[in-house]
Amino acid sequence: MIMTLSSAAMRRREAVVSLARAGGMAAASAGLGYWLSRRSHRPSERVAAVFSARDHRVPDEARFPKMVVVRGGDPRRILRRAIEELGGIGRFIAPGEVVVIKPNASWDRTPEQAANTNPLVVAEMVKLCRQAGAKRIIVTDVTINEARRCFQRSGIGEAASSEGAEVILPEARFLRRVDLGGTALGAWPVLEPFLLCDKIINLPVAKHHSLTGVTLGLKNWYGILGGNRTRLHQRIHESLADLAAFMLPTLTVIDGYRVLLRNGPGGGNLSDTALEQTVAAGTDPVALDAWAAKTWWRMEAKQLPYLNLAAQRGLGTPDFEKLNSKTIDL
């Protein structure tokens, strides 16, 4: 079942606990926001809540690779094998946690058009999190096209719901204005589930992008933001690095089952896609983006300034060849 955020809002106790983790300043801002909400002006337009970077990472373990590429087979199978090789879902998700899965669901397109994350990849990730004992699993995205149509036509809404996830459609009144503290990004509206969860799994699809060359894991964070995101294009690489520094995921999985090679990010023509039957998963989001850019577009990291900016901030390495990694052909 697809729900709006109002019908699936965080329970009060969970919200209070999560806000407490964000520190006293965040709690104070939340309290002020509640007070203002009872007056004529919306707090999200007036008050920028202060959150530190949302660090959902798990510790590295030398016995597991930092990046795994699996090729061949159906979407569910290749994802499941990749997670197994990384140490299993239990390494990333603990019982009782609230998990947000962030696909790319931005476009009113079918799965064959490869503009959105493959719905079967989303479904399998939800299933794995449920098996790990997650208390709540939320699938959400701030879409470009009309949200309900995007989640329906992409198949993501039905796929996620069928495995027990809550599919939350973005509503402007539930965007919280947050100071992202970046070099290009200051106060900006952020969808609330991304601020209140325990773990986040970034689940982008591999696509061409007319402005940045590619849209992969780091570009997928645009989908946490409301507002007029085209304004960010003026300093897009700095914006991407700012978002990467603010939203540190538990796990990144790049869906390369069907890749949009040209005319992205919206696509539309099946001739622009390629059936690659691949997923790349790991704990270094910079390395994963660099690997995908080189694999499908022959682009070096130096051609993607946002990757180098992210690396300079210590968010990962574009030198994926130097990582402990594993490639499996099924």
Quick description:
With 330 residues, this protein is of the alpha/beta class. It has helices at residues 12-21, 24-37, 43-46, 75-85, 119-131, 147-153, 156-162, 193-196, 236-246, 285-297, 305-312; strands at 2-4, 49-50, 54-55, 67-71, 98-103, 136-140, 166-169, 175-179, 187-191, 199-203, 205-209, 213-215, 247-248, 251-260, 273-282, 325-329. Helix content is 31%, strand content 23%.
The biggest sheet amounts to: 11 strands, mixed
Number of helices: 11
Q: Note the beta-strand portion.
A: 15-25%
Number of strands: 16
Average pLDDT, rounded to a whole number, is 88
Helix fraction by DSSP (H/I, runs of at least 4): 25-40%
In sequence order, what are the helices and strands, one letter per element?
Answer: EHHHEEEHEHEHHEEEHEEEHEEEHHE
Over all CA atoms, what is the radius of gyration? Answer: 18 Å
Q: Which spans have pLDDT < 50 for at least 5 consecutive residues?
A: 6-46
The domain count comes to: 1
